[in-house]
Write a structure and sequence with these properties.
- The chain is α/β, with parallel strands linked by helices and 324 residues long.
- Helices cover 31% and strands 13% of the residues.
- The chain contains eight helices and seven strands, in the order H-E-H-E-H-E-E-H-E-H-H-E-H-E-H.
- The chain has helices at residues 13-24, 40-50, 69-79, 134-143, 154-159, 167-183, 209-229, 283-295; strands at residues 28-33, 55-63, 99-103, 120-125, 148-152, 198-203, 250-255.
- It has a seven-stranded mixed beta sheet with strand order 1-3-4-2-5-6-7.
- Helix 2 (40-50) runs antiparallel to helix 8, helix 4 (134-143) packs across helix 6 and helix 4 (134-143) runs antiparallel to helix 8 (283-295).
- The chain is globular and about 45 Å long.
Length: 324
């Protein structure tokens, strides 16, 4: 059906005003920081709370070895829908920004939304590959509760190595931290105990459903090898992780053309901004996770070094996967 044109001179103005009103409270970056991870997460969490966020979801943005720096930069902005038009969008620069906070566009009419509160936000850690140490990346993933947005390059997928240089040690540390917290050892307290987590794998060079499915099979095959290679905690209450679903509660595979991945971080598959989302935590609790990671000695050269129950070396890198 073709609508009739509005001949009123005020016609075009009203939709424009409505657009301004609708975007005024849209999702937007509130701050970015260049401080060291994982401590820098605390800064953006505080900024989100100051903006009125009652619930915060955290995630780490990681990439495989062959993802170019320019691609990392463009994907960081496109995947999280940072247009460059916001007041603080220029504070998100891959290689400089270590973490940024984004206030979400919460729908107060949505069932389960925090209509009486200040809404929600996401705190995204983005350690730069080649600059952040293995310890920083691993401790950041632990501080984020295990939720990760991971970019896998098609070159690394094809050759079966370079995929888990960062993610492998992070999974190793995450499993050790969970086991130590559950057993009461390692000084982790309750904040490091297993909480629902999401892994979103972004494939470069894959656009169609068939291409994504093919990449998924390659990724999961390499992931199984990685899980066999890392040190895992031995406890009567735990079993050895043999597949990614043993580590992450929800796994999604998407193309590099995806937008608004921050809205897909909910482990239950619902809207991440809803207060009943398993990933949504009060700012104080999320900041407590960061503080606990530092106090537990999971970061090199920061605070007392506390030996983990699984005795996983902080500096141990995951061996390259060559098919052996």
């Amino acid at each position: 059906m073709i609508s009739k044109p509005n001949r009123s001179p005020r016609g075009p103005i009203l939709p424009f005003l409505l657009l301004l009103l609708s975007t005024a409270d849209a999702s937007h970056v509130v701050s970015g920081t260049t401080a060291r991870l994982p401590m820098s997460l605390s800064t953006v969490i505080q900024d989100l709370e100051a903006e009125g966020a009652s619930y915060v979801t955290t995630a780490a943005f990681l990439t495989s070895q062959s993802v170019r720096r320019s691609t990392c930069s463009s994907l960081l902005r496109s995947l999280f829908s940072i247009s460059g038009e916001g007041d603080h969008d220029d504070e998100v620069i891959y290689g400089e920004t270590t973490a940024f906070g984004k206030k979400l566009d919460d729908d107060d009419d949505d069932e389960g939304s925090d209509a009486d509160g200040g809404g929600s936000g996401v705190a995204i850690a983005c350690p730069s590959r080649g600059e952040a140490t293995v310890s920083e990346v691993s401790s950041t993933v632990v501080a984020c509760g295990g939720t990760v947005v991971y970019v896998a390059d098609e070159v690394d997928l094809g050759r079966g190595e370079g995929l888990f240089d960062a993610l492998g040690p992070a999974v190793e540390r995450l499993l050790a931290a969970r086991a130590a917290a559950e057993s009461g050892d390692g000084g982790g307290g309750t904040t490091l105990k297993h909480r629902p987590s999401t892994l979103i794998v972004v494939f470069t060079g894959a656009a169609s459903a068939a291409e994504i499915e093919s990449s998924r099979r390659l990724f999961e095959a390499s992931a199984a090898k990685m899980l066999r290679s890392i040190i895992q905690p031995v406890a009567a209450t735990s079993h050895r992780a043999t597949k990614l679903s043993d580590v992450f509660d929800r796994i999604e595979y998407v193309s590099s053309n995806e937008k608004d991945v921050d809205m897909q971080l909910c482990p239950a598959g619902g809207k991440v901004g809803r207060k009943n989302s398993p990933s949504a935590r009060e700012p104080a609790e999320v900041a407590g996770s960061v503080r606990t990671v530092v106090e537990a000695g999971l970061v090199e050269n920061v605070g007392p070094m506390v030996e983990m129950a699984a005795k996983v070396p902080v500096k141990q890198a995951c061996p390259r996967l060559t098919g052996n």
